Amino acid sequence: MVLFIISFVLPKWFNIVKLLLLCLLALTFLDTLILFSTKRGLKGSRNLPEKFSNGDQNPIQLTIENFYTFPVNARIIDEIPEQFQARHFKIDRKLSASSKTELQYKLRPTDRGEYHFGKLNIYITSVFGLIARRFSFDDKAMIPTYPSFIQLRKYNLLAISNNLNQYGIKKVRRLGHTMEFEQIKDYVLGDDLRTINWKATAKRSQLMVNQFQDEKSQPVYSVIDKGRVMKMPFDGLTLLDYAINASLVISNVALKKQDKAGIFSFSKKVENRVVAERRTSQMNLILEALYNVNTDFFESDFGRLYGNIKRNVTQRSLILLYTNFETLDGLHRQMPYLKGIAKSHLLVVIFFKNTELNSLITEKAETVQQAYDKVIAEKFAFEKRLIVNELKKYGIYSILTTPENLTIDTINKYLEIKARGLL
User: Fold this and answer.
1) Out of 27, 210, 246, 254, which could bridge 259 as a Cys pair, Cβ 3.0 to 4.6 Å?
2) Residue 3: its pLDDT value, please?
3) What Rg do the C-alpha atoms of the chain give, in angstroms?
4) d(Cα 25, Cα 352) in Å, to the nearest integer?
5) What is the largest CA-CA distance in the chain?
6) Where are the beta strands (DSSP E) in 162-266?
7) Mean pLDDT, the chain, integer
């Protein structure tokens, strides 16, 4: 009986399976015919910017044209630069029949230098999804990554705008006038009442005010320590890159304020120098110099820095020194050179809070080890504040800031110095 059932059922199931297999082969053939029936089924292109902005989200535009008369499913695999370590990067999208589709994705580089793209690969399938056809477009392309020019544009108008607080820039009251008289003009609502010229007002029988020209053409140097202390990472970038981005922005602000802007870096020697000037090409020169600043992992030579500034920076200047001190002993070793620079220039030492310690300080200690870690973290945070007081004792200005607030805090200090006429 069992043999009879097997002999009756097996041929029946075999025929069904054979029929399904034939249907599958027919659909596969049809799917292949549909996808490969035309050479020009798809067209894709990648629109890259001229350069990347380091530490920012940079948009990449993709344009895909579907020449098929039916919708297709597309899997887009762009061969993005190896620095991003995105091994499974893909975009899935349904493309309408005979349509043009615009796509965008963003990349955030965290290193300056050259980024190489490979090919733009697009795999398409029809409604059956049995066969995929690959299209490849755009041969290799290289994009240089420069210091954050997106951040530069963000703050570009603050130098001529009175609405600075939208970016966290403080409004600093100007303490008197530090420059010479320019002209007498009619009073306009908002002019400082202290500038009213009473003699001219009596003669004209209307309010007249003295107009003063702001102090101009003062050299402002961004000096970047590129030694190993600036290699500490934060949110994907190093402290060196944060300093470079801030230097680019403050140089632009100084030029907008009619000052001269210049930069140089140092470690075992002084390099990447751009002399402080106000020429039209100055920002391009600064951008190119900052692009080439790289750490050499050496101990920075502050003595060489002092000697170089003494020889080459003869006019009294604002020196914005980006570095990092973790201990008071580390500061004391360099203090003679810092005091030497401060004798001839207005020196502002800019260094960083250790943000990794904040969680240890704020968290409640529940074990002996946590209590020990908390005490050590508080000791290092307190030592940073002692460094500020030590610098202040010798008449050296300082900025103790977090990496994300570096640019804003530096601009605030520069505007404060300008308003108080300290330089």
Assistant:
1) 254
2) 47
3) 32
4) 67
5) 130
6) 181-186, 208-212, 219-225, 233-234, 237-238, 260-266
7) 85
The angle subtended at Cα 415 by Cα 401 and Cα 257, nearest 5°, is 130
- Here the tokens at position 74 are 């597309």
The residues, any chain, with a CB within 8 Å of residue 293's CB and separated by 6 or more, are 112, 224, 226, 240, 244, 265, 271, 272
Both structure tokens of 82: 């190896």
CB count in 10 Å sphere of residue 77? 17
Listed residue (331, 376, 383) closest to 353, CA to CA: 383
Match 């499974």 to its residue by tokens.
88
Burial status of residue 106 (CB atoms within 10 A of its CB: 0-12, 13-18, 19 or more): exposed
What is the H or E stretch that residue 338 is in?
helix 328-344
Q: Please check whether residue 90 is in contact with residue 62, taking contact to mean a CB–CB distance below 8 angstroms.
A: no
Contact 104, 59 (CB under 8 A): yes
The angle that helices 328-344 and 368-393 make with each other, rounded to 10 degrees, is 20
Q: Name residues whose C-beta falls within 8 Å of residue 360's C-beta, 6 or more positions apart in sequence.
A: 373, 374, 376, 377
pLDDT at 392 over 60: yes
CB 147 within 8 A of CB 100: no
Q: What are the pLDDT digits (tens) for 365-385?
A: 778 777 777 778 788 788 899
Sign of the C-alpha dihedral computed for residues 299, 303, 306 and 308 taken in this order: negative
Full-prediction pTM beyond 0.90? no
Single-letter residue type at 343: K
| pLDDT at position 181 | 58
User: Does 98 have pLDDT greater than 70?
Assistant: yes
Q: Which amino acid, one-letter code, is at 63?
A: T
Read off the pLDDT band of 21 (50, 70, 90): confident
Residues 250 and 348: beta-carbon distance below 8 Å: no
pLDDT tens digits, residue range 262-277? Answer: 999 999 999 999 999 9
Token look-up 């108008």 returns 157
Q: What is the chain's percent helix, strand, coil content, to nearest 5?
A: 40, 25, 35
The number of residues in the chain equals 423
Q: Spell 117-147 as b/e; 16+ CB within 10 A means b.
A: bbbbbbebbbeeebbebebebbeeeebebbb
- Strands ordered across the beta sheet of 113-117: 52-53, 141-146, 113-117
Residue type, 370: Q
